[in-house]
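Table S5 (text form). Sequence records supplied for joint modeling of the two-component complex.
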Amino acid sequence: MNRSITLVGDSIENPANALTMMHAAGMFGSACRFRDTKGLASTPGAPLALSGITNLNAEEARALHPRHVAFDNLPGASEVYGFQAGTDFSVMVGNERRGLSHEFASLATDRVHVPMHSRRINCLNVAAAAAVALYYLSGPRVSPMAVRNEPGRRRPELLFLGPREHVELGSAIRSAAAFGWERALVEDRHRVWFDCDRGIRAEGRAAARRARNEILLVPVPDQGPKPFAHVTVVTCRQEGLPLHRANLTRGASQLVVIPDESEAETTSEMWSRWGVEVEWARVAIPATEFTYHYRLLATIALAEVARQVGRRPAARPPREPRPPIYDHKLEKWAEATGQRVSLKELMEY
Amino acid sequence: MSRSKHTDPRSIQATRRLRAPREERGAGDLSRRRRLGHERKHAGVSDIAEAGKAPALAVAPRIGTQPSRAGWTHPVNKADVRGLLEAVGPAACYGLRAVELVRQPGRGVETVLRFGCYDAGARAVLLFEQPLAPWHLPGVLPAKSARRLRAAGARVTRQRDWGVTLVEWPEDTLRQFMLEDVLLHELGHHVLQHEKARRGRVARTQDHEAFAAQFAARQRRRLRDQRRPAR
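The corresponding structure-token record, covering 580 residues in total, follows.
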């Protein structure tokens, strides 16, 4: 299918985020443009790839596509799950702290957001959010978020396996908290989270928004955790069920493993040590060659688990008692509608 | 007691609000109005309505009509309703949104005959269509209901042998009944409900009915006194 999609970043201020957004756009075969009010290209130490970006103003953004999807927590926004955006549209994401500017938000023909479960972490990393938007708007057609009475009982355990970058892991942890996980296992073989330098530790915690993020991170013991009944490994390198078709709602008996596949070492993993039944769920990435970012794949996987786990039904406000109606009427038309006649009288008649 | 508009008697408040529903609270010179009131009192005129200056209802409730079915009729028309509302005055009509002349609910198989009702949520009075006179009611009408209809001017013949009741309405007694009994009774419900300024239940049904009956009787007396030629 011929798709024409552009990812538009509005006033992105972190060059690393901008670069990751470009990589996210590359994963889904879309272009990436920026409204550069922060001087991304001229920031000291900015990646070389950002040197060629040109500033996009509102008029140019309007002319790009007939449809513009604002991906932000705006009033009246629809859920990204099941949203049909067509084949020719732009996805606009806003500044890390302030979101979309009024100028760009007013361009939007559609408003879309990804539902959050946490009250303390109510937004994702901007590049991770862009990846989720591109995945659901250009990828598989999925149903809306499930509605269940007790979604918490369907939520599987989560394992971050062998992350290599502390900032990538921090962003993934932030996403997990935002999607409602209260605890996660971390297999930290590259020492990017638990026993690491002070600088790495600070950067990782900042990316995870640890000051507000109350998720409990449990290091995986050397002998491994108790084996789970079901293990689902989320991958983008190996064959497997499409992610949206895998059952990710088996609750505490299921472990969802998100391995870092930036290098090929996961192929030699002893998966049987994690559980009895192991299945693979594949994140469908259209591009064959792309720059791998752990946070992007992890956030897409977490968003899909959150969609399947679902949320509680909206609380119904108590109904007001019906206002009274006072009737004015004849009480009854008839005391008796007939006469009693005995059989003897009838025979005599 | 403060001398503000808020403490005005209900009849004065209602007149003012019907005349200018969007007027601000601070509008108008109260001192001038009070001086005029004093002068009027010294002149022996105690009420605006008695002076023959009762204003027409600037914001009258909507009066709607649903055509009656074959064999049924609306004993009153829009002009009758409007005339009665103006005669009763703003105190009863303030806050009333509509008076609707509608068909009987159901499809004619009910054993009750409805005259009117007041919907507190919609703040509307419904007056139902009635059968064309004379009424041949199946069964014998209870004595209490027969007394009520006779008091309104109907001739009620309860034919026990045949198990039917014949109700005749000579001249315009049915119209008078609908206006001075039914409509005034429903306005009584509205006055009590609106005075409490709530949509929900403000009194027990029994008390509500008692207040409405009392209001209707008082207004009926007042209207008949007004019609009686002065001696």
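Note: Strands of chain B lie at 62-65, 72-73, 98-102, 113-119, 124-128, 130-131, 135-138, 155-159, 164-168.
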